[in-house]
Amino acid sequence: MLTDLARSRRVLFIGGKGGVGKTTVAAATALAAANAGRRVLLVSTDPAHNLGHLWGREVGAQARRLAPNLDGLELDPEQTINAHLQEVGAALRRLMPEHLAGEVDKHMALSRETPGMHEAALLERIAELVEHGLDAPGSGGHDLLVFDTAPSGHTARLMALPELMSAWVDGMLHRQARSRHFGEVLRNLGRDDSVGEQILGGHGERHAARESEGETRDDRIRSLLHRRRHRFEHLREVLADGERTAFVIVLTAERLPVLETIELHGQLVRAGVSVGGLVVNKRSPDDAGEFLAARARIEAGHLNELRTALPDLPLLQLPLLPGEPVGHEALEAFAARLMPCE
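Structure for arsenite-transporting ATPase, as requested:
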């Protein structure tokens, strides 16, 4: 199931509850696809930075070659927010009068702690990677993006955010259009009688200069807002396209991960994201002593509950391993296990 998705899709999101092995599954899937000849970019959006630990080397915020056909990068939350605020702050300073630059800096400093800032900055970076990271075949870019995502709640909010951000940008464009229309009305009044002159506070060449300056600023604002709307709309379009994108939920066969998986599946479906399958990781063997056999029976009960709630999703089961798969060789062995059991 995983290898089929990695072969047929352009974007894969790997998510689930914390501690179930999402990063390992994402890395092994990306490696299997790269071994099959696809050019793959593996991206970690998890603040825990497990990608570097898993590969046993520094990964970081810039794409780095991990294996033939496979590059990896970690989106650093602080660095992402800093870059996001610097870009927005620079845009605001260009658009606002020079004497308000200090106010813009204060606003941006306060924005750092605003609820949702982390998600908004992360979404902007993901949208940018999806927009520019998937090049046409033969262009030297990547054929497949594999996102190793943060734990469930964070990721579910992220998947719903493009819709909200697009709506927010639309609202800004609407307000900007109304403001522009109001400005044009005032300027027309200014041409017709002295009332407009008084409202605008000047006449003659000063009017023309302000009008030209105002139009330039309006055009820049609209250009920035349209660019952001296009980027979010493109991400929304890619997320909603089941032919290009799939979300895979990783879990262990325990009560809380099963309940969280059912809840996450509902949130993703409501957000319009196609769920391509389930990976049940770390399944206990039933032939390695009574202790593990007892655990295997309990896990089977939890999986029955999962199959009752989500009967139509492909499901892959991976065995409990004696150690953590760390490094290229161990991940190659893990990738070889990505075969369907149902």
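Strands lie at 11-16, 40-44, 64-67, 70-74, 144-148, 245-252, 275-283, 315-319.
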